[in-house]
Design a protein that fits this description.
The chain is mainly α. Helix content is 75%, strand content 4%. The protein is built from 13 helices and two strands, in the order ααββααααααααααα. The chain has helices spanning 2-33, 35-45, 64-72, 76-105, 112-135, 153-162, 167-178, 180-186, 188-200, 203-211, 216-244, 250-261, 265-290; strands spanning 47-52, 55-60. Strands 1-2 form a two-stranded antiparallel sheet. α9 runs antiparallel to α11 (216-244).
Length: 298
Protein backbone atom coordinates (compact mmCIF):
# COMPACT_ATOMS: atom_id res chain seq x y z
CA UNK A 1 0.00 0.00 0.00
CA UNK A 2 2.81 2.38 0.86
CA UNK A 3 4.68 1.59 -2.36
CA UNK A 4 1.52 2.06 -4.41
CA UNK A 5 0.93 5.48 -2.80
CA UNK A 6 4.46 6.57 -3.62
CA UNK A 7 4.05 5.40 -7.22
CA UNK A 8 0.77 7.31 -7.57
CA UNK A 9 2.41 10.43 -6.18
CA UNK A 10 5.30 10.05 -8.57
CA UNK A 11 2.95 9.59 -11.53
CA UNK A 12 1.01 12.71 -10.59
CA UNK A 13 4.22 14.68 -10.31
CA UNK A 14 5.35 13.42 -13.71
CA UNK A 15 2.06 14.48 -15.26
CA UNK A 16 2.31 17.88 -13.61
CA UNK A 17 5.86 18.26 -14.89
CA UNK A 18 4.68 17.40 -18.40
CA UNK A 19 2.03 20.12 -18.15
CA UNK A 20 4.63 22.64 -17.03
CA UNK A 21 6.77 21.75 -20.04
CA UNK A 22 3.86 22.46 -22.39
CA UNK A 23 3.07 25.86 -20.85
CA UNK A 24 6.70 26.87 -20.31
CA UNK A 25 7.17 28.39 -23.82
CA UNK A 26 4.02 30.49 -23.31
CA UNK A 27 5.21 31.69 -19.90
CA UNK A 28 8.62 32.65 -21.29
CA UNK A 29 7.11 34.37 -24.31
CA UNK A 30 4.61 36.24 -22.16
CA UNK A 31 7.30 37.38 -19.74
CA UNK A 32 9.67 38.53 -22.50
CA UNK A 33 7.28 40.08 -25.00
CA UNK A 34 3.92 40.85 -23.34
CA UNK A 35 4.44 41.96 -19.73
CA UNK A 36 6.07 45.27 -20.62
CA UNK A 37 3.50 46.20 -23.34
CA UNK A 38 0.69 45.29 -20.92
CA UNK A 39 2.02 47.60 -18.23
CA UNK A 40 2.79 50.30 -20.77
CA UNK A 41 -0.72 50.12 -22.23
CA UNK A 42 -2.21 50.62 -18.76
CA UNK A 43 -0.08 53.75 -18.36
CA UNK A 44 -1.16 55.00 -21.79
CA UNK A 45 -4.83 54.47 -20.96
CA UNK A 46 -4.47 56.74 -17.92
CA UNK A 47 -2.53 59.44 -19.76
CA UNK A 48 -2.81 61.91 -22.59
CA UNK A 49 -0.27 60.90 -25.21
CA UNK A 50 1.13 63.46 -27.64
CA UNK A 51 3.51 62.42 -30.42
CA UNK A 52 6.56 64.64 -30.80
CA UNK A 53 9.55 64.70 -33.12
CA UNK A 54 11.66 62.86 -30.58
CA UNK A 55 9.02 60.33 -29.46
CA UNK A 56 6.00 60.96 -27.28
CA UNK A 57 5.01 62.87 -24.16
CA UNK A 58 2.66 61.57 -21.46
CA UNK A 59 0.40 63.64 -19.24
CA UNK A 60 -1.44 61.81 -16.48
CA UNK A 61 -5.22 62.36 -16.73
CA UNK A 62 -6.55 59.51 -14.58
CA UNK A 63 -9.85 58.03 -15.76
CA UNK A 64 -10.66 60.85 -18.16
CA UNK A 65 -9.94 58.65 -21.17
CA UNK A 66 -12.43 56.06 -19.96
CA UNK A 67 -15.00 58.79 -19.29
CA UNK A 68 -14.48 60.12 -22.82
CA UNK A 69 -14.94 56.66 -24.33
CA UNK A 70 -18.15 55.93 -22.42
CA UNK A 71 -19.82 59.33 -22.13
CA UNK A 72 -18.40 61.60 -24.85
CA UNK A 73 -17.61 59.41 -27.85
CA UNK A 74 -20.87 58.93 -29.80
CA UNK A 75 -20.03 55.59 -31.45
CA UNK A 76 -18.01 53.41 -29.08
CA UNK A 77 -20.84 52.18 -26.83
CA UNK A 78 -23.11 51.51 -29.80
CA UNK A 79 -20.41 49.62 -31.75
CA UNK A 80 -19.44 47.69 -28.62
CA UNK A 81 -23.03 46.63 -27.91
CA UNK A 82 -23.75 45.64 -31.50
CA UNK A 83 -20.56 43.60 -31.71
CA UNK A 84 -21.33 41.74 -28.48
CA UNK A 85 -24.89 40.92 -29.57
CA UNK A 86 -23.91 39.83 -33.09
CA UNK A 87 -21.08 37.63 -31.86
CA UNK A 88 -23.13 35.91 -29.15
CA UNK A 89 -26.01 35.25 -31.53
CA UNK A 90 -23.67 33.93 -34.24
CA UNK A 91 -22.01 31.32 -31.99
CA UNK A 92 -24.91 28.78 -32.11
CA UNK A 93 -25.18 29.11 -35.91
CA UNK A 94 -21.43 28.59 -36.34
CA UNK A 95 -21.41 25.54 -34.06
CA UNK A 96 -24.43 23.94 -35.75
CA UNK A 97 -23.04 24.49 -39.25
CA UNK A 98 -19.57 23.28 -38.25
CA UNK A 99 -20.81 20.15 -36.54
CA UNK A 100 -23.21 19.32 -39.36
CA UNK A 101 -20.53 19.77 -42.03
CA UNK A 102 -17.98 17.76 -40.03
CA UNK A 103 -20.50 14.94 -39.56
CA UNK A 104 -21.18 14.81 -43.30
CA UNK A 105 -17.49 14.84 -44.18
CA UNK A 106 -16.80 12.07 -41.68
CA UNK A 107 -19.21 9.63 -43.34
CA UNK A 108 -17.94 6.74 -45.44
CA UNK A 109 -18.83 7.36 -49.07
CA UNK A 110 -17.12 7.18 -52.43
CA UNK A 111 -15.19 10.33 -53.26
CA UNK A 112 -15.01 11.53 -49.65
CA UNK A 113 -11.50 12.96 -50.08
CA UNK A 114 -12.57 14.92 -53.15
CA UNK A 115 -15.64 16.19 -51.27
CA UNK A 116 -13.44 17.44 -48.45
CA UNK A 117 -11.16 19.24 -50.87
CA UNK A 118 -14.09 20.81 -52.71
CA UNK A 119 -15.66 21.87 -49.43
CA UNK A 120 -12.59 23.34 -47.75
CA UNK A 121 -11.05 25.18 -50.70
CA UNK A 122 -13.88 27.75 -50.94
CA UNK A 123 -14.15 28.00 -47.16
CA UNK A 124 -10.46 28.59 -46.46
CA UNK A 125 -9.37 30.41 -49.61
CA UNK A 126 -12.50 32.19 -50.75
CA UNK A 127 -14.33 33.14 -47.55
CA UNK A 128 -13.04 36.70 -47.68
CA UNK A 129 -14.26 37.01 -51.24
CA UNK A 130 -17.68 35.74 -50.22
CA UNK A 131 -17.89 38.29 -47.44
CA UNK A 132 -17.00 41.06 -49.88
CA UNK A 133 -19.58 39.75 -52.31
CA UNK A 134 -22.18 39.78 -49.57
CA UNK A 135 -21.33 43.35 -48.70
CA UNK A 136 -21.71 44.41 -52.34
CA UNK A 137 -24.98 42.48 -52.78
CA UNK A 138 -23.53 40.37 -55.59
CA UNK A 139 -25.13 37.29 -54.08
CA UNK A 140 -28.54 38.80 -54.77
CA UNK A 141 -27.74 40.01 -58.27
CA UNK A 142 -26.76 43.39 -59.57
CA UNK A 143 -29.31 46.12 -59.18
CA UNK A 144 -31.32 44.39 -56.44
CA UNK A 145 -31.90 45.98 -53.10
CA UNK A 146 -30.49 44.47 -49.92
CA UNK A 147 -32.78 41.88 -48.42
CA UNK A 148 -34.85 41.34 -51.59
CA UNK A 149 -33.12 38.34 -53.23
CA UNK A 150 -33.78 34.62 -53.08
CA UNK A 151 -31.12 34.06 -50.42
CA UNK A 152 -32.14 37.08 -48.36
CA UNK A 153 -33.54 37.08 -44.86
CA UNK A 154 -36.71 38.72 -46.13
CA UNK A 155 -37.54 35.71 -48.31
CA UNK A 156 -36.87 33.28 -45.46
CA UNK A 157 -38.96 35.43 -43.10
CA UNK A 158 -41.90 35.28 -45.49
CA UNK A 159 -41.60 31.49 -45.81
CA UNK A 160 -41.40 30.87 -42.05
CA UNK A 161 -44.21 33.30 -41.34
CA UNK A 162 -46.51 31.18 -43.47
CA UNK A 163 -45.47 28.14 -41.40
CA UNK A 164 -46.51 30.04 -38.23
CA UNK A 165 -43.23 29.47 -36.44
CA UNK A 166 -42.29 31.50 -33.29
CA UNK A 167 -41.32 35.09 -34.03
CA UNK A 168 -38.03 34.87 -32.10
CA UNK A 169 -36.97 31.76 -34.01
CA UNK A 170 -37.85 33.38 -37.36
CA UNK A 171 -35.85 36.50 -36.49
CA UNK A 172 -32.78 34.49 -35.48
CA UNK A 173 -32.87 32.36 -38.66
CA UNK A 174 -33.33 35.35 -40.95
CA UNK A 175 -30.46 37.21 -39.29
CA UNK A 176 -28.30 34.11 -39.75
CA UNK A 177 -29.25 33.92 -43.44
CA UNK A 178 -28.24 37.55 -43.94
CA UNK A 179 -24.85 36.71 -42.39
CA UNK A 180 -24.18 33.43 -44.22
CA UNK A 181 -20.80 34.53 -45.68
CA UNK A 182 -19.50 35.55 -42.26
CA UNK A 183 -20.81 32.35 -40.63
CA UNK A 184 -19.16 30.22 -43.33
CA UNK A 185 -15.92 32.11 -42.83
CA UNK A 186 -16.01 31.56 -39.06
CA UNK A 187 -16.83 27.84 -39.46
CA UNK A 188 -13.66 26.76 -41.26
CA UNK A 189 -11.47 25.99 -38.23
CA UNK A 190 -14.32 24.61 -36.05
CA UNK A 191 -15.14 22.14 -38.84
CA UNK A 192 -11.56 20.87 -38.78
CA UNK A 193 -11.65 20.55 -34.99
CA UNK A 194 -14.96 18.66 -35.00
CA UNK A 195 -13.78 16.41 -37.83
CA UNK A 196 -10.62 15.52 -35.93
CA UNK A 197 -12.70 14.77 -32.84
CA UNK A 198 -15.13 12.54 -34.76
CA UNK A 199 -12.27 10.55 -36.26
CA UNK A 200 -10.69 10.02 -32.83
CA UNK A 201 -13.76 8.30 -31.33
CA UNK A 202 -13.07 4.54 -31.11
CA UNK A 203 -15.32 2.48 -33.37
CA UNK A 204 -15.53 -0.20 -30.68
CA UNK A 205 -17.83 2.07 -28.64
CA UNK A 206 -20.38 2.20 -31.45
CA UNK A 207 -20.07 -1.56 -32.02
CA UNK A 208 -20.74 -2.25 -28.34
CA UNK A 209 -23.71 0.13 -28.38
CA UNK A 210 -25.12 -1.59 -31.48
CA UNK A 211 -24.78 -4.99 -29.83
CA UNK A 212 -26.67 -3.65 -26.82
CA UNK A 213 -29.49 -2.55 -29.13
CA UNK A 214 -28.89 1.20 -29.07
CA UNK A 215 -30.27 3.24 -31.95
CA UNK A 216 -28.23 5.75 -33.94
CA UNK A 217 -29.94 8.59 -32.07
CA UNK A 218 -29.09 7.04 -28.70
CA UNK A 219 -25.49 6.43 -29.80
CA UNK A 220 -25.20 10.09 -30.74
CA UNK A 221 -26.37 11.38 -27.35
CA UNK A 222 -24.59 8.72 -25.28
CA UNK A 223 -21.30 8.46 -27.20
CA UNK A 224 -20.70 11.12 -29.87
CA UNK A 225 -21.95 14.21 -28.06
CA UNK A 226 -20.30 13.50 -24.66
CA UNK A 227 -16.93 12.67 -26.27
CA UNK A 228 -17.10 15.83 -28.39
CA UNK A 229 -18.16 18.09 -25.51
CA UNK A 230 -14.56 19.30 -24.87
CA UNK A 231 -14.33 20.31 -28.53
CA UNK A 232 -17.58 22.24 -28.28
CA UNK A 233 -16.02 24.34 -25.54
CA UNK A 234 -12.82 24.75 -27.58
CA UNK A 235 -14.80 25.91 -30.60
CA UNK A 236 -16.90 28.32 -28.56
CA UNK A 237 -13.76 29.92 -27.16
CA UNK A 238 -12.18 30.01 -30.62
CA UNK A 239 -15.23 31.64 -32.22
CA UNK A 240 -15.43 34.25 -29.46
CA UNK A 241 -11.76 35.19 -29.72
CA UNK A 242 -11.71 35.07 -33.53
CA UNK A 243 -14.86 37.18 -33.86
CA UNK A 244 -13.80 39.84 -31.37
CA UNK A 245 -10.30 40.11 -32.85
CA UNK A 246 -11.37 40.16 -36.51
CA UNK A 247 -10.17 43.07 -38.60
CA UNK A 248 -13.69 43.84 -39.84
CA UNK A 249 -14.98 44.06 -36.29
CA UNK A 250 -16.79 47.43 -35.81
CA UNK A 251 -15.16 48.01 -32.41
CA UNK A 252 -11.67 47.24 -33.73
CA UNK A 253 -12.23 49.56 -36.70
CA UNK A 254 -13.54 52.31 -34.43
CA UNK A 255 -10.54 52.03 -32.09
CA UNK A 256 -8.17 52.17 -35.06
CA UNK A 257 -9.99 55.27 -36.32
CA UNK A 258 -9.66 56.97 -32.93
CA UNK A 259 -5.92 56.23 -32.76
CA UNK A 260 -4.69 56.73 -36.32
CA UNK A 261 -7.47 58.87 -37.75
CA UNK A 262 -8.04 61.35 -34.93
CA UNK A 263 -4.77 60.93 -33.03
CA UNK A 264 -6.43 60.40 -29.61
CA UNK A 265 -4.08 57.63 -28.54
CA UNK A 266 -4.87 57.56 -24.83
CA UNK A 267 -8.60 57.17 -25.46
CA UNK A 268 -8.00 54.41 -28.00
CA UNK A 269 -5.92 52.46 -25.48
CA UNK A 270 -8.63 52.94 -22.84
CA UNK A 271 -11.21 51.58 -25.31
CA UNK A 272 -8.93 48.64 -25.99
CA UNK A 273 -8.66 47.81 -22.31
CA UNK A 274 -12.43 47.96 -21.83
CA UNK A 275 -12.89 45.75 -24.87
CA UNK A 276 -10.22 43.32 -23.68
CA UNK A 277 -11.74 43.17 -20.19
CA UNK A 278 -15.22 42.46 -21.57
CA UNK A 279 -13.93 39.63 -23.77
CA UNK A 280 -11.94 38.19 -20.87
CA UNK A 281 -14.98 38.31 -18.59
CA UNK A 282 -17.07 36.60 -21.27
CA UNK A 283 -14.50 33.81 -21.58
CA UNK A 284 -14.47 33.33 -17.80
CA UNK A 285 -18.26 33.03 -17.83
CA UNK A 286 -18.09 30.48 -20.66
CA UNK A 287 -15.48 28.42 -18.80
CA UNK A 288 -17.50 28.62 -15.59
CA UNK A 289 -20.72 27.47 -17.25
CA UNK A 290 -19.30 24.75 -19.49
CA UNK A 291 -16.29 23.32 -17.66
CA UNK A 292 -18.44 21.30 -15.26
CA UNK A 293 -20.55 19.91 -18.09
CA UNK A 294 -17.65 18.71 -20.19
CA UNK A 295 -16.94 14.97 -20.26
CA UNK A 296 -13.29 13.92 -20.55
CA UNK A 297 -12.77 10.35 -21.69
CA UNK A 298 -9.62 8.65 -20.41
Amino acid sequence: MKTRGLFRLGLERRRAFTGYIYVFPFIVGFALFFVRPFVQSVIFSLSELRVTQTGYVLKFVGLNNYHYALRVDPSFVRAFTETMVQTLTAIPAVLVLSFFAATLLNQEFRGRTLARVIFFLPVILGAGVLVRMGQQQLMLGEGTAAGSGILSGQSVRFLFARLRLPVGFIQYITDAVDRIPGIVNASAIPILIFLAGLQSIPGSLYEAAEIEGATSWESFWKITFPLLSPLFMVNIVFVIVDSFAAGNNPVVQHIEGIAWGRGIYGVSVAMTWMYFSAVGLLLLIVFGLLSRRVFYHE
